[in-house]
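Q: Given only this backbone (249 positions), what sequence would you predict?
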């Protein structure tokens, strides 16, 4: 839907005849008021478009507004347009998203294996170790409000962030070599992954034997604090009670 009923524009040599035929009068470069419905289909005049689903407003060229209406005759934003996409996918491939099609998934996996040696490109070393891709992903998270730029973080917050990043690198190796027993009290807690939900006091969590706070205060690098030798698995409640203390075993 368009908010304005009429709009001002300057006549030019390309469009003046169009408006004369519709009954408007004026000369080249003269400003006139016309009904929005009388604008040319290729007009770049900006109108206030109202998204039909979410109701928010957006200033866009009239031409772009008409293009948006073409398929399903309603105006949608980037988020709301998923509804249009689903209709198109259902019509063309019979499912509401390509990922739901076994045939398409198999074809995609086959192509990925041929091109990059993995079912999914995001799992390849080329993707995971690409600094440019990491930077783009980070900037996207910041832009969408899911991350905070380092310039707005304290030295302590930056240090913790780096430790989490380095720790995640060793997470799989730690889990694979873990015997299932709590490092501190010796209880068997491997089944607690199934019995409890994350953040439950009994849920297994990764602890740094030499604490992150101690590492920060003593200028120990995040990489050193996050080494596999300094990691262990314990109950969340023990991890929380330990806080900034070092290994108490």
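A: Predicted residues:
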């Amino acid at each position: 839907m368009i908010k304005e009923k009429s709009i001002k524009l300057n006549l030019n040599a390309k469009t003046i005849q169009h408006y004369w035929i519709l009954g408007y009068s004026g000369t080249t470069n003269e400003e006139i008021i016309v009904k929005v419905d009388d604008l040319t289909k290729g007009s770049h005049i900006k109108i206030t478009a109202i998204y039909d689903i979410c109701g928010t407003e957006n200033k866009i060229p009239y031409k772009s507004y008409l293009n948006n209406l073409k398929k399903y005759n309603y105006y949608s934003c980037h988020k709301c347009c998923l509804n249009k996409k689903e209709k198109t996918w259902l019509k063309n491939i019979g499912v509401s998203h390509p990922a739901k099609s076994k045939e398409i998934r198999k074809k995609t996996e086959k192509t990925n294996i041929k091109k990059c040696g993995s079912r999914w490109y995001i799992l390849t070393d080329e993707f995971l170790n690409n600094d440019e891709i990491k930077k783009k992903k980070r900037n996207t998270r910041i832009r969408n409000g899911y991350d905070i730029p380092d310039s707005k973080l304290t030295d302590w917050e930056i240090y913790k962030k780096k430790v989490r990043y380095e720790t995640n690198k060793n997470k799989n190796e730690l889990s694979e070599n873990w015997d299932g027993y709590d490092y501190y009290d010796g209880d068997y807690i491997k089944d607690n992954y199934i019995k409890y939900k994350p953040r439950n006091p009994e849920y297994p969590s990764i602890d740094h034997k030499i604490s992150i706070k101690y590492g920060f205060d003593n200028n120990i690098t995040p990489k050193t604090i996050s080494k596999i030798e300094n990691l262990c698995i314990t109950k969340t409640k023990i991890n929380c009670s330990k806080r900034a203390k070092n290994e108490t075993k």
